[in-house]
Amino acid sequence: MSKVIVIGAGIGGLACGALLAKDGYEVEVFEKNPFVGGRCSATEMKGFTIDNFVHAFPLGGKGPHAAVAAELGVDLEFIVQDPAAMVVDGLNGGARTYPQRLDIRPPMNRFRMAMNMGVKISNLFGVYRLFQRMLKAEEEFIASKDDTTIRDFLLEYTDDPQLHRFINVLSFMMFTLPYGRASAGEFIHCFRDMAGAANFGYVRGSSGAIPEAYRQGLENNGGRLHLGKKVQRILCDSGGVKGIATSEGDVEGDVVISNAGIQNTIAMAGEVNLGGDYVTMAKSLVYSDSAVVVKYILDEPVVKYPFIVYIPDADAEEMFFYTCADNIPQDVYIFMPVIDLWDPGLVPEGKQLIIAGAAANNRPSQGDSHAIIEIMERRIFSLFPGFEEHVTWREEVHAEHIQATTGHPRFADCVGLAQIPGQVGAGKPSPATPVQGLYLVGAEAGARGIGTEQAAASALAVSALVRGGHPL
Ligand SMILES: Cc1cc2nc3c(=O)[nH]c(=O)nc-3n(C[C@H](O)[C@H](O)[C@H](O)COP(=O)(O)OP(=O)(O)OC[C@H]3O[C@@H](n4cnc5c(N)ncnc54)[C@H](O)[C@@H]3O)c2cc1C
Questions:
Q1: I want to staple 118 with a disulfide (CB 3.0 to 4.6 A). Which of 4, 103, 162, 208 is the partner?
Q2: What is the model's pLDDT at position 1?
Q3: What is the CA radius of gyration of the chain?
Q4: What is the dotted CATH code of the domain comprising 105-195?
Q5: How close is the Cα of 104 to the center of ligand 1, in Å?
Q6: How far away, in angstroms, is 423 Cα from ligand 1 center?
Q7: Which are the contacts of 111, defined by CB distance < 8 A and separation ≥ 6?
Q8: Which residues in the chain show pLDDT less than 50?
């Protein structure tokens, strides 16, 4: 029987290991952190369950998380609400607030969405054509737009400034990348599927419930999980992969699946084993931008909407310039789930738990996390009177914390590889590496999609690949 070793218990690694254990493979998962889930993890604190970062789930119960859970026979419940979000547009120093409906398939809901955004009447037809094209996109059309940016794709339909501001924020929410850099093909794929599912929301039990369900799936099927065990090297020779080395000794395996990211995987396996062309390709890869996050506990509920998206007072072109430069913006985009309004079970009665995130530079040494947090916090306090007075606890997450969680050597990327032209669809690295039996899994290989859902989709694809290449 093939013995499978998985490096990393993020969404990709844990789901892939669990799926293979379910198939009957002998699976051992090694995770350097003392907890599962990587970037999609949570912590318990005095009756609260608090996401380590900040998450929402675009396809929810109709996406790859639900597909993995169904295959494993474990419980995972997603929660939806309609409206799915309240959008606050800060244009010209204002705070125009409007609801975003969960289901935008009915044409009337899309019409209202465009009117709410503030699209000019003369641009409505272009916006209608754009939405129609995206909702009905076939795979061929999506692939034809992989190497175009979202911004350039939108310009084929409309230059409406409000539509551009809205889609730029949506692009950052989906990919942690502004629309001038993100791939239109990837965006159309995700937009089409998200609209088709009409299931955007949160997960019962916190973001950490997803890796916990996968952990259960692994252990129920005889897989073994080692927490706090960092893999130091991947053992291989010209015949392929042989196993891994940890500080406590070597472990043999026929298949090694790495959830540690391409750069780490190369470092662990040795450049010489992967070959010059592969190493050159990997070194040229670009990573997604990062985020700063602040978590707040309030001693009474102040915010009454479950999910807030704030569009900053900036035009589309300039909104995210600061994530690649060292200037400080005047105003920042904010992504803010109000956790108790999704799952009251995560918060003691009468209290409120809010997590807010804003865009940041992915090189921790370069951005100014404190300045961005200050701008974000000032905006939140001004939008929600009483918020500041009721805060009893707050905790900041900077790009460094994200990097420490993943262990990525150079970047504090939120998602993984940047979903930019050249790095998506056919341009995305294959999960199969040049070393026989060594695979990649997670947000860096093998699937399209948004963040955690992309990692779960990768797990489904990679487990099938391993099944095909290494039959039981
Ligand atoms: C602030 C923030 C907001 C986000 N918002 C969303 C959102 O709203 N929706 C969404 O779907 N996604 C979101 N994401 C993205 C999403 O969390 C990630 O894309 C996804 O979780 C990546 O999963 P992964 O399995 O590819 O990798 P990871 O989560 O990075 O897991 C990799 C694991 O490998 C382990 N590892 C690395 N090296 C070793 C080693 N040598 N030995 C042992 N273990 C090792 C790491 O410790 C880690 O646990 C967000 C991320 C952040 C940071």
A1: 162
A2: 65
A3: 22
A4: 1.10.405
A5: 29
A6: 18
A7: 124, 128
A8: none
